[in-house]
Design brief:
heterodimer, A: 169 residues, alpha+beta, four-stranded mixed sheet, 2 helices, 30% strand, B: 191 residues, six-stranded antiparallel sheet, 3 helices, globular
């Protein structure tokens, strides 16, 4: 009986750890499937979040998001994001949910944010420079956040955000 | 039979305890400040197993603290769960960040349906009460004059939570989030 109990508890501990460890990847995979309304490596520009938005938990209703599911297993991805005041950022999320980089309108050294995203399998021939960001996984999510300070400001911000580009190199 | 029972018991206890661990309670690295709670490892590679799992459920695609710090309150100053049955006074001043907002979320972590399509108050949209930038808002399902953050429609009774986002917070926020002066959240009338 004691051995049986010890076995059950050890088994339970393993199941517990495996479940907690697997959860972020499973949730991220489901989120990427939902985000992928556009093609892989292509930005989508959803409307401002309302109570009807059921894609990603705890969205900010004050942000205009642009999202992209990237796959850099075969090619690097060159991304440029034009800026809008009062706040713009581009951030990357790996398959395990980690936020592996974030650049905002203040830390960007140019009038736009420009990066080249690479992953563990991406061929690096001839790639160099400060603009390279390394993702710990070949697939993941890029997210642009823009503060929309008032409803009236949205139309102009929306026009600018659609000029974001992602090009395979 | 004993082996089968053992496997079932291990699965039940393992998955059940994982669910409870991920659902709530304080996790390693959590910092509280009044009713507000934050975790400075959110989104970063330093996040432990449990923080990552909790973030994937309640804050997927959250930014690392150098970019944004998130404080969430699911209780009032007295520790009672926030409910759409009650009205709350939310009051504060300027916050040490480039831009900030406070958003209300239903228990399912999505925005709360309401009749005016308002889900947040922010640095740019608030009416200020005083010269120092101080402000007072009412969080309630009942419509309210002035700064009103709806917690539902009149008659709603759901529990909800608030998330304060500090975009590009001052270094002092990450240095000592427990010492920061954050908005107070006091329950007033309940129905």
């Amino acid at each position: 009986m004691t051995r049986w109990l010890v076995g059950v508890l050890l088994g339970a501990a393993l199941v517990h750890l495996a479940a907690v460890a697997a959860l972020p990847r499973l949730v991220m995979r489901a989120a990427m499937a939902r985000l992928q309304s556009a093609a892989v490596n292509e930005f989508a520009h959803p409307p401002l979040a309302t109570a009807a938005a059921r894609g990603i938990v705890r969205p900010s209703p004050d942000l205009a998001y642009s999202g992209l599911v990237f796959d850099v297993s075969a090619h690097p991805l060159a991304v440029t994001v034009p800026l809008t005041p009062p706040y713009t950022s581009l951030s990357g999320f790996a398959a395990n949910t980690d936020n592996f980089f974030a650049i905002n309108d203040r830390t960007a050294s140019a009038p736009e944010i420009a990066v080249i995203v690479v992953g563990p399998s991406t061929p690096r021939d001839g790639l160099s420079g400060a603009r390279i960001v390394e993702s710990p996984s070949d697939r993941g999510v890029l997210l642009v956040r823009r503060v929309v300070p008032s409803a009236a400001a949205f139309a102009e911000i929306d026009a600018v955000r659609r000029r974001a580009s992602a090009v395979q190199r | 039979m004993r082996v089968l029972l053992g496997v079932l018991a291990a699965l039940t206890i393992g998955l059940g305890s994982a669910f409870l661990a991920v659902r709530g309670g304080l996790a390693a690295g959590d910092v509280t400040n009044g009713p507000w709670r934050t975790n400075l490892t959110t989104g970063s590679a330093d996040a432990d197993l449990y923080t990552r799992a909790r973030v994937s459920i309640a804050g997927l695609l959250a930014l690392a603290p150098s970019e944004t710090i998130y404080f969430t309150a699911s209780t009032d100053e007295a520790g009672a769960p926030l409910s759409a049955r009650c009205d709350y006074r939310l009051a504060g001043g300027e916050l040490p960040a480039r831009w900030w907002s406070i958003t209300a979320y239903a228990a399912d972590h999505f925005l709360i349906p309401n009749d005016v399509g308002r889900y947040s108050i922010s640095q740019t949209g608030l009416e200020r009460a005083g010269p120092g930038g101080s402000w007072v808002a009412r969080v309630a399902a009942q419509p309210s004059a002035g700064n009103w953050l709806p917690s539902g429609r009149a008659g709603d009774a759901g529990e909800f939570s608030l998330t304060l986002r500090l975009y590009n917070p001052a270094a002092s926020v990450a240095d000592d989030p427990a010492a920061l002066t954050l908005p107070i959240l006091v329950r007033e009338a309940c129905r």
